[in-house]
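Appendix B. Raw example, untouched.
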Amino acid sequence: MKRVSDRFMQLGVSAGIVGMALGVMMGKTEDFTLAPVHAHINLLGWVSMLLYALVYRAVPKAAEGRLPTIHFWLNVVCFLAMIPSLALYLMGNKAAMIPLALSSAGGWLSMVLFAVIVFKATWRE
């Protein structure tokens, strides 16, 4: 994968655009049913992905090997599954709880993997 930091940065700013557009739409219609979706897109997409990008950029050793690529794909797949699942659940589709729960757990595992990557890259003996 070409620079994992670039991919996270590109997805982060894309999520920022989508999250803000959803916020504008909710404000215009005064329907805030999807406010948690808006928050998750902005926090997990815009903020977290951009922070991942900046850490991988600032600590080049963290971007080495296969783990960052695994982190990227686990994060992206879970994020892309979580957002529509959360939206469906909030709109009353209770069956969406299963993919929502699985993608949430995967997102947490993605953060645990990122912690392993950061500690491995920054641990001093």
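End of appendix B.
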